[in-house]
């Protein structure tokens, strides 16, 4: 069961970011395992009955990893935090579940980045955060204690879902990340556009990467797949 919807709750915006008017945000709602999930244009899932926001693949410190290899890239830590702040404020969520790859690499464990995130975390001090360790987390190590994140191996059972990083680790109904799904849309002039998407494949919902500084993977769409594209502050079902 799929329907489009909008979030009408007020959005608190940091002075350093300009978020779209929440009345113009279009979401998609799906029913999975008899639970109502809302797919948000930031790339997050809002599980209202559990007051839980789910995201995946933030890859904090990836820019620092590049700089450690003498490749200058702009830092996007604050951009990710501003986007996450918009989601958490708009939903008033009590819990945040991160489905893996919180930190990109051990070489990206940058003191400045870690301090930025720790300071920002204080804005949501009453909220519980849980990380389901992904492949990058295993090599990068757990986050600093100041972030106050409970770290668990995959899969982790919550309600009817197996929460995991890799989709193949889930059994039954599950939510996962890891694949960074994108879809390629083509126009009549042979132009094409790659856009992040949610992919509902059988009983598994695969989330897009929450960070835009990661490579997306165009996945072949199989019979029965449902694809929800993120573009222009909207989530739109295209398959």
CATH architectural designation: 4-Layer Sandwich
Radius of gyration: 17 Å
**Helix content range of the residues, please?**
10-25%
Overall structural class, as computed from helix and strand content, comes to: alpha/beta
Characterize the main sheet: 9 strands, mixed
| Low-pLDDT runs | 1-20
Strand content: 25-35%
The H-and-E topology, N to C, reads as: EEEEEHHEHEHEEEEEEEEEE
The whole-number mean of residue pLDDT values reads 85
- The CATH class assignment is Alpha Beta
The dominant shape is: globular
Q: What's the number of domains? A: 1
What name does CATH use for the topology?
Purple Acid Phosphatase, chain A, domain 2
Distance from N terminus to C terminus (CA atoms, Å) equals 13 Å
Count of β-strands: 17
Tally the helices: what do you get?
4
Question: How would you summarize this macromolecular structure in one to three sentences?
Answer:
The chain is an alpha/beta fold and 239 residues long. It has helices at 62-68, 77-91, 111-121, 135-140, and strands spanning 2-6, 26-32, 35-39, 45-47, 52-55, 95-98, 128-132, 149-152, 156-158, 161-163, 174-176, 181-186, 192-201, 204-206, 217-218, 226-231, 234-237.
Detailed description of the structure:
- Strands 9, 10, 11, 12, 13, 14, 15, 16 and 17 form a nine-stranded mixed sheet that branches. Strands 1-2-3-4-5-6-7-8 form an eight-stranded mixed sheet, with helices on one face.
- It is globular, with a radius of gyration of 17 Å.
- The protein has one domain: Purple Acid Phosphatase, chain A, domain 2 (4-Layer Sandwich), CATH 3.60.21.
- The protein contains four helices and 17 strands.
- The model is unreliable at 1-20 (pLDDT under 50).
- The two termini are 13 Å apart.
- A hairpin with a 2-residue loop joins strand 2 and strand 3 (35-39).
- The longest helix is centred in the middle third of the chain and has 15 residues, at 77-91.
- 16% of the residues lie in helices and 32% in strands.
- It is an alpha/beta fold and 239 residues long.
